[in-house]
Amino acid sequence: MPQEATNVDYGHSPKAVICPAYDSAASQTNRSDAREVIRRFRELSSDDQQAVIAYLSSPDSYGGNVVTVDRLSTHASLIFLAGDHAFKLKRAVKYPYLDFSTPELRRRACEAELALNRRTAPELYLAVRSINREPDGSLAFDGSGAVLDWVVVMRRFDQSGLFDRLAVDGALTGPLMTELADRIAAFHDAAERMPDGGGSAGIAEVLAINETALARYTPAIFATDKVEPLHAATATFRCMNTASRTTWDVKVDYDRNTADSFPATITAREISWKDTKEGGIYTLDRNTFALTFVNSSSMGGYLLFHTCRAS
């Protein structure tokens, strides 16, 4: 039972003690105390990862051999590089394509990542470990207290072995790339067949996820006129001849692979088609929207440059 306060001096103005003015010294002190209580509660809340992040950021959490901890960030994870190991923490986030919003969902994701990646790199993917709050309030790996979060533990490797580093150093050879391709092909060949997944339905699901994610932030972040063409099966580009300043529209149908009703080759980088009426070939750069027209024959040829924009 709480004890009654028997020694409170209310002085000549009890109201000033019970409910002090907002700008009084007593009120400011109490507000500071309240903020500190809230801050400490949030640090220890199972729904807030700040305490776990602070724990993983401290070299003391890993034993005497770790002097510094480096951190890498992605949209879905935080990776803490400590000594010879890396500890991957799933962010407490929820996107249309993934849900890490609770410790239980993050545990499942960690265990799935370990199982999947150990098939190809068992020497790198080592374990899934819990981070617990001990009875004294401290945090510990694999402790006896309540579980706050989970991490995937990996063995670090020399970053000079990454293919992008090898390419910069001139060490990414043809035989090495062929060996990698052979291993990937063999892995896919031995993988379990999933006839009820992927295909056109899988692509449609990915597109639906993209539309949902973009719609959530349009127009707050993304401009509507930039997003709407991405959702359409067709797109229209307003093009202009840079010399004559004349303009015209080019309609691209991504389902039928046509441009201006002519068969087109559509890649992530460009759209190209042959205009059988004029006898030339158009190439539209999908990054810069530069349109090039080449017309050649036994009598000679010419090259025209145009600029386009999505309309």
Give the strand order, joined by hyphens, for the main sheet: 9-10-11-12-13-14-15-16
Average pLDDT confidence is: 82
Radius of gyration: 31 Å
The total tally of domains equals 3
Note the beta-strand portion. Answer: 25-35%
Helix content: 25-40%
CATH domain class of the largest domain: Alpha Beta
CATH fold-type name of the largest domain: Phosphorylase Kinase, domain 1
Proper CATH architecture of the largest domain: 2-Layer Sandwich
The tally of beta strands, per DSSP, is 16
Largest sheet: 8 strands, antiparallel, barrel
Structural class: alpha+beta
Number of helical regions: 8
Estimate the global geometry from the Cα principal axes.
elongated
Tell me what the structure shows:
- The radius of gyration is 31 Å and the shape is elongated.
- It starts with 13 loop residues before the first helix and ends with a strand.
- Mean pLDDT is 82; it is low at 1-15 and 36-47.
- The protein folds into three domains: 14-44, no CATH class; 50-161, Phosphorylase Kinase, domain 1, CATH 3.30.200; 228-310, Lipocalin (Beta Barrel), CATH 2.40.128.
- It is an alpha+beta fold and 311 residues long.
- The strands form three sheets. The protein has an eight-stranded antiparallel beta barrel with strand order 9-10-11-12-13-14-15-16. The protein has a six-stranded antiparallel beta sheet with strand order 1-2-3-8-6-7, sandwiched between helices.
- It is built from eight helices and 16 strands.
- It has helices at residues 14-18, 25-44, 50-57, 103-117, 163-168, 174-190, 199-216, 224-231, and strands at residues 69-73, 77-82, 85-90, 94-95, 98-99, 125-133, 139-141, 146-155, 234-241, 247-253, 258-259, 262-266, 270-275, 280-285, 290-297, 300-310.
